[in-house]
Specification:
This is Transcriptional regulator, GntR family. Keywords: DNA-binding, Transcription, Transcription regulation. InterPro entries: TF_FadR/GntR_C, Tscrpt_reg_HTH_GntR, WH-like_DNA-bd_sf, WH_DNA-bd_sf. It comes from Variovorax paradoxus (strain EPS). With about 350 residues, the protein is mainly alpha-helical. It has two domains: about 120 residues, Arc Repressor Mutant, subunit A (Orthogonal Bundle); about 220 residues, GntR ligand-binding domain-like (Four Helix Bundle (Hemerythrin (Met), subunit A), Up-down Bundle). The chain is about 55% helix and about 5% strand. The strands form two sheets. It has a four-stranded antiparallel β-sheet. Strand 2 and strand 3 form a beta hairpin.
Length: about 350
Amino acid sequence: MRPPATDSGSDIAPAAEAGERKLRYEVIRNRLRQAIVDKRIVQGLVLLEGPVADVFGTSRVPVRKAFHLLHEEGLLQKFPGRGYMVAPRGQQVEPQRLAIDEASLGQDAQGATIYIPSESERIYGEFEQSISAAVVFGHFRIDEVRAMKYFNVNRVALREVLSRLVDRGLVEKSAYAAWRAGPLTARAIAQDFEVLLLLAPAALLESGPKLDEPFLLGLRQALRDPEAVGTEELLRIEGQIHGDCLSRHPNTKMLGILRQCQMPLIVNRTFCRMFQQLVSPLLLDEYRRIVAHLCEREFALAAEALAAHLQAARKRTQQQLKVLAVLPEPQFPDYLVRVA
C-alpha cells in the first residue's frame, strides 16, 4: 500500500479517474457512491473513517468529508457512536459490523489505493522538460510568478521543483535570489563526461550486485525488440541505466555528483524529442550489453560496457550539439525569460 498522500485541495486524480482534476474526497465519494448504487456494498455496513482510509491509502480527512457528502445525498445514515451506516435515508436497516477491506467496500483489490501526486510531482516532468530544452539554446531566468500562474500552483510547490532541479544541476540560484538555467556549453558537457567516465563505471561495479533481478529482467525485456523502442521508452531506459542502476552505491556524495552531471543526457533528450527519428541501433546495442552483463552477474564487464557506452555517447553528443546549434529557437513558456 502506498503511504497516505497529503490532502492538498489542488491535487489531481490519476488517469484512472478520467484525467479530471479531482480532490481525494471526491474520488472516495464517487467510488463509494457507485459501489452503493451497484449494490456491491452490503446494506447496513458500518463505515469507520480509519479502516476506510486504510483501504484507499489516504488520511481520514477526505474520508470524513466523503462520508458527510454521501450522508447529505441520503446514501448513508449516521450510526450511533462513531461512523456511518450504508442505508437510504429513513430506512430501518440492521447494522452490519463487518471487516472493512477492498471487498466489503466493493473495490478492486488491486486498484483501491488512491494515488494523487503532489502539486510538485504533477508539474515536475513538464517543467524539467522545458528547462532541459531551453538551456540548449541559451541562458534563461525563471520568473516565479509566471510559472506559478502557468502551472496553477503555489510558491511552495514551485520551489520544491526548483530545488530538485538545482540538485540535478539544471537550475541555479543567483546571489540576487533569481533562479537561472543554462547556458549549456560544450565545455560543461565535456566536464560532465569526464566525471561520468571516472565515477559511473565504479558506481555500477558496486551497485550492480544489489540490483533486483525483476528490475534487470524488465530492462532486458524492454531492450529485446529494437523496433518496439520509441523515443520516450528509450529515454525511460536511459534514465534507469544512468540513474537506477547506479543508485545502490552506498556513497551518497558520489551519487550526488553523478546526479549533477546531467548535461549529456539533456542534449540527448532534447535531440531525440525534437527529431522523432528511429532509435539508434548502436545505442540500443550498448544498453543491451550493459544489461546483459548485469543479468549474468558479470559486474566488471558491465562496468566496462558502461565506460564504452559513455565514450561513444561523448562523440554522439558532439554531433548532436552541432545540429542543435543551427536550429531556430523554439517557443518556450513565458516563465522562461532569456537573459541577454
